[in-house]
What does this fold into?
Amino acid sequence: MRRIMYLSRASSTMTAEKAAAIAEKSRRKNESLGITGVLALEDGVFLQILEGPDMAVAQRFDAIRGDFRHQAFITLSDGPVQSRCYPDQPMQIVVPEELPQDAREALLSLYDLAPKAPPKTLRQLLPSFTQ
It folds into this structure.
């Protein structure tokens, strides 16, 4: 049994309705492969947890990585697990508040990972010397 948790940026054309359609299609596919998990979309960022048979999870994750609707992947965890967090959910859409604490923190941490614009001048680098 394997679990992968990742973050990705949604393409600019992603909407909540499109995410729901993705989840419905994924639900059917995942069920046939024995995969369970959740999908959250918040401010254009996906957080997804996939769990199930090792090879099936790896193949689904590879397919998702090739999907143009996902960009800038960050794999948060990937490894063997003893049991599922979502044993009865082939793919459930959740709001961030419904995620486990570690997943919620990971989703919110993406804002801290976003690169900030570098200072343009030395004065911007050393604001205390400009006063």
Observations:
- Confidence is low (pLDDT under 50) at residues 113-131.
- The first strand starts at residue 2 and ends at 10.
- The two ends are 59 Å apart (CA to CA).
- The helical segments are 16-33, 54-65, 101-113, 122-125.
